[in-house]
Structure formats: structure tokens, C-alpha cells
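Subject: sequence -> C-alpha cells, single chain

Hey, anyone have a minute? Need the predicted structure for the following. Not urgent.
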Amino acid sequence: MQEKTIMCRDTAERRRDTLERLGSERDLWVSTAHPDHGPHHVPLWFLWDGQAIWMSTGANSATARNIREEPRVRLALPDTVDVVMLQGEGRCFAAREVPGEAADAFADKFGWDPRLEERPYAYLRVVPRTVRAWRGTSELRGRIVMRDGTWLG
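Reply:
Had a minute. Here:
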């Protein structure tokens, strides 16, 4: 049996690959926690604007309530082989308060505008402080590609 050789990417390659995925993918997992009710984990559509992740969910959802109470969140793209995990602080915007540029870009990407729904929606903005990216155990070392809000490499 022939053993596969896995090439380890350097930090600059991981950063480039991560930014490409953030710009092209549509789904991620959002992990929040409430001080009294504990953890909550849901998949949401997302938009990367080059600085932050934008999502939308019901204004009264557990995710929105949790972020209002405890803004620290973790996000993960849904691939367990090519892992990208982000950590940062979230902020909720009512649909009438979200910056128009972000809401318009979100609507353009998904063909759906939460501002037009009868039921109230919130927009969630997460600015990453830490980003980790790795493919397999050979890339566990050096997996941090953003630290304290600054891209490495």
C-alpha cells in the first residue's frame, strides 16, 4: 500500500485559501452560548465582506438572543478535511439598522432579503479575532492564520 504524501501549506497559503473559501462558500456553523441556557449550534448562510462575517436569523432566535447576552462566538466552515474555524465577537443589528451595503450584498448573494420579511429578522456581524486553518494532522502546527484580528503570513 502506497502512503500519500500530504504537502503542508505555509501560513500565506493557508491565509489565501481561507480568504478564497470565505468569499465563495455560503454556509457555516455558528456556535453561541447563553449564560443560563448553555451552548447553541446552528448552520446559517453567510457573507464575507472582507472584514467581517454577516448572517441573518430571526430577531428572536436563540442565536440572536445569545449574541446579545454573550457576544463571543465561534464559526466553522462545514468541511472536516479542510478546516477553517473563526472566533470573534458578534453584534446584532435590527433589519432597519443594518448598514445598507451589507444587507444589499447579502440579498444579492442569496436572492433573499430578510428586510422584506413579515417576521422580524436580525443581521449578525462577527469580526474575527482568531482564525485557524488546517488540512489533516500534518497541518495542526501553524494552524493559526489570524491572531488578535491581524492576518499572519
